[in-house]
């Protein structure tokens, strides 16, 4: 059980770091798009390969919390996992970013708000993972004096 707890915390910690970098990359690309540094086709082609891995990593973290009995982490992640699951199956066969719509100001603002919300969520997730990682390592690797 101790090895499972350490495995869950390490993998979810690494996954949360990857998700944070993914959202930062998206925010930088959205800034480049809104300031005409990047074109809409380059934006869509550059970011589309990161959509499915984000969904998968976040889903794996949610399932790891369930397997490791981290109920708080699991319950926090369920709404976003449901959102990703819904986005995956409602846009099946379609691209997440449509280069014909992405240039509209309201679409850029919506994607920007969504990216900032996800970044905040992933930062909270990162802090929780850091806490749980330290606690599991201290609990299982440091001998207790009885």
From TrEMBL:
<keyword id="KW-0472">Membrane</keyword>
<feature type="transmembrane region" description="Helical">
    <location>
        <begin position="63"/>
        <end position="85"/>
    </location>
</feature>
<protein>
    <recommendedName>
        <fullName>Cornichon</fullName>
    </recommendedName>
</protein>
<dbReference type="InterPro" id="IPR003377">
    <property type="entry name" value="Cornichon"/>
</dbReference>
<feature type="transmembrane region" description="Helical">
    <location>
        <begin position="7"/>
        <end position="28"/>
    </location>
</feature>
<comment type="similarity">
    <text>Belongs to the cornichon family.</text>
</comment>
<keyword id="KW-1133">Transmembrane helix</keyword>
<keyword id="KW-0812">Transmembrane</keyword>
<feature type="transmembrane region" description="Helical">
    <location>
        <begin position="119"/>
        <end position="142"/>
    </location>
</feature>
<dbReference type="Pfam" id="PF03311">
    <property type="entry name" value="Cornichon"/>
</dbReference>
């Amino acid at each position: 059980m101790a090895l499972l707890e350490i495995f869950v915390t390490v993998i979810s910690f690494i996954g949360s770091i990857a998700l944070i970098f993914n959202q930062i990359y998206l925010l930088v690309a959205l800034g480049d798009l809104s300031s005409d540094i990047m074109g809409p086709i380059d934006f869509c082609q550059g970011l589309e390969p990161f959509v499915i891995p984000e969904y998968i990593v976040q889903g794996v973290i949610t399932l790891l919390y369930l397997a490791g009995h981290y109920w708080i982490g699991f319950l926090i992640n369920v709404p976003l996992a449901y959102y990703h699951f819904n986005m995956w199956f409602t846009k099946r066969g379609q691209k997440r970013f449509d280069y014909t719509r992405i240039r509209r100001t309201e679409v850029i603002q919506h994607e920007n708000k969504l990216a900032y919300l996800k970044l905040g969520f992933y930062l909270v997730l990162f802090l929780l993972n850091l806490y749980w990682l330290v606690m599991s390592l201290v609990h299982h690797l440091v001998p207790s004096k009885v």
